[in-house]
Amino acid sequence: MVKICCIGAGYVGGPTMAVIALKCPDIEVVVVDISKPRIEAWNSDTLPIYEPGLDDVVKQCRGRNLFFSTDVEKHVAEADIIFVSVNTPTKTRGLGAGKAADLTYWESAARMIADVSKSDKIVVEKSTVPVKTAEAIEKILTHNSKGINYQILSNPEFLAEGTAIEDLFKPDRVLIGGRETPEGRKAVQALKDVYAHWVPEDRILTTNLWSAELSKLAANAFLAQRISSVNAISALCEATGANVTEVAYAVGKDTRIGPKFLNASVGFGGSCFQKDILNLVYICECNGLPEVANYWKQVIKINDYQKSRFVNRVVSSMFNTVAGKKIAVLGFAFKKDTGDTRETPAIDVCKGLLGDKAQISIYDPQVTEDQIQRDLAMNKFDWDHPMHLQPTSPTAVKQVSCVWDAYEATKGAHGLCILTEWDEFKTLDYQKIFDNMQKPAFVFDGRNIVDSEKLREIGFIVYSIGKPLDAWLKDMPAVA
Amino acid sequence: MVKICCIGAGYVGGPTMAVIALKCPDIEVVVVDISKPRIEAWNSDTLPIYEPGLDDVVKQCRGRNLFFSTDVEKHVAEADIIFVSVNTPTKTRGLGAGKAADLTYWESAARMIADVSKSDKIVVEKSTVPVKTAEAIEKILTHNSKGINYQILSNPEFLAEGTAIEDLFKPDRVLIGGRETPEGRKAVQVLKDVYAHWVPEDRILTTNLWSAELSKLAANAFLAQRISSVNAISALCEATGANVSEVAYAVGKDTRIGPKFLNASVGFGGSCFQKDILNLVYICECNGLPEVANYWKQVIRINDYQKSRFVNRVVASMFNTVAGKKIAVLGFAFKKDTGDTRETPAIDVCKGLLGDKAQISIYDPQVTEDQIQRDLAMNKFDWDHPMHLQPTSPTAIKQVSCVWDAYEATKGAHGVCILTEWDEFKTLDYQKIFDNMQKPAFVFDGRNIVDPEKLREIGFIVYSIGKPLDAWLKDMPAVA
Asked: What residue stretches are annotated with the UDP-glucose/GDP-mannose dehydrogenase C-terminal domain (chain A) (predicted)?
């Protein structure tokens, strides 16, 4: 029986291993983590991660060929294939602060593997790491090897939060990168055989090690760039009276461009896009390519600009003052159908409004109050350290209240910001909402999900990203 | 009988009107231009524009319902629909120099239309113009109207040089923008009925006027950005030992990104990409959006960087000196299957090498020697003035020779630069070429069309964009 051990029971490791276990009944899969509460949660009825379909997959395999354990060393020693799926947070101080990936957890995982191994192993990079990390890991393993042979593979993940299980069942591609030596190719084949249980072979791409690592970063950079590009166009549409939805539709009809990821919004979120671009920028700078680094930095700059622009629009619309005014925020997750708030634009928008002393009332169908309070209290990138190392008991932000109902959030509010495209926000009773708001009543649609004409008929002043501006908004230009 | 008149017999107007005439036998189409030689060429057996399939289309309709004439005023007066397809060169001095479109020709066309019109007309913007030009044109027409009603429509072209006829027969989309008034909508319908003769209605998009104008600029900016993005990645691949073809293939497999326009190269060319992005940048700046302007400028910067990087690689590889050395350039057109050299990267590469005093021998199967000499002598953007206003008899550059055979170009050369992906360059006898070159012999493949392994076996030192570097090249790093 082939044994797989996955170090790291987070968003990447957990779902991936669950799907492997489901699709490969002949393989024993153990997910290990040093976080006892997390492992206990995986073994309970309330999994620590919410993903549609994940519960079902785990319950079919858990106890059969899928196990969750804190006994890291035992299972690493016994494994044939070790996936390393630890966090790679962005550094917050020192060289590369704000850009470079912190490889502390990765390095300690490699050292532990070298310490406990008693047989040859395939070590697979599953988390996102800078190009050439495999070389560094290989050096650590080789210099501590005691005669054991390690093959390092790169197998970056391409999951999208909210559709992780679906992405794992039918991936656009599975990338496997390895050394182009006989041993390297053999290791690649072993991993390929695992995925071939359910993924068509033409979607399993094997490339040299560096190409595989770059492909993940590049793919996410390309996707994020599409969003930033249409967001950049949305600003121009507002300035010229054009309509970004029409422009994006026409652009997307060009089959060389395609229609996906062309929805203008308040900004992209999620743990991957910003982090992968910052990694890419850092790698470019380390390789003496400042022109390329600047190019990719612009994707982040436009994303930040879009969020700032949105906040400025809110404040300037209300006579440049929101101090003491209640502003409702509908949606906190970085996209619908997930409770994930990593890098969500809602954090930046809320902080922007709090900076102007607004009172914020937040409703999101899935994000917990604890999470919201934690997000608004912590500094950027803290979320990417393991949970047990995150700041505990942050002081609750007093200007913020979290409610369990959209109508409660909007009661007595001056303005309403829609920041996540949850389906339920499209079908709210906006007349009822309008009746209970202060006047003039504003809707700031950061996701272009409301019908602005209908809302204007009700009496709202509506701002939709990239759409021709209301007369009121034209007379109150937002100035950064 | 509906009468269409097209002002401007260039790359856009000529082919477009020819296809309309072919597909709409019940419509009389007249293409007019003040350039007598150009009109005479359209009426001869040697058309002034080379496009596959164009000869056949023109000869089927010319004299039947397609005519070419210099009697501009007569045909404008008689027309029901007037397409304005004049050049909009980039300004070379004054406000917006290097970025803004020069609307001199557009404005004079509008004034002439107002002067000679005796009946209501639909005026269609066909050439690329900044957003809101329709407003300016409308003002000119209205203030000179003498009671005649004009409807201004935007109908930007999306042709790609080299596949213009194919693009016109089966367009990804036809965009028609007009005022959202009853008269405006009626005019849009008239133009839509023309295209509906052969274009499925679901591909004919009608949007408000501003969205239509922005869509053309945005579509080209998105396409150019894809090329610059993969070119940016190619620089990183060279620095890290990755392979850009593998990375691009993996990225393109993601259906949200798609596989088109992900070929790394020495840079994009053609009259559209650079010009449309510069227009977009200028419009952003005029609308007080410096962040957005900077974002799109980066697409141009990376393109310039890629060309500079290529030249630096050539010079650095040859001991930092190419003075007096013969360098062969294979391919001058901005892409294969065309004689079009507008904004071709070959111009910048050749000028870079000439700046270092190299002797250049150029072969291109379709570009004329006159064109090459003219391109290398003139300043940027001069090509976008009508031919009869371009500088005449530029001094031939002594360091440049144009030959009619690849083997002649490479004889006695130190290096070969492949700058256009002509099919014939893939099947040259490289052993024969190698035997007749100075040693060490270099191939710099700016289009990734040669097999570097085979060439290395022959004895060449090969540089391919975005591929792992030859040992020789690694030891001679290019420094910008």
From this structure: 328-452
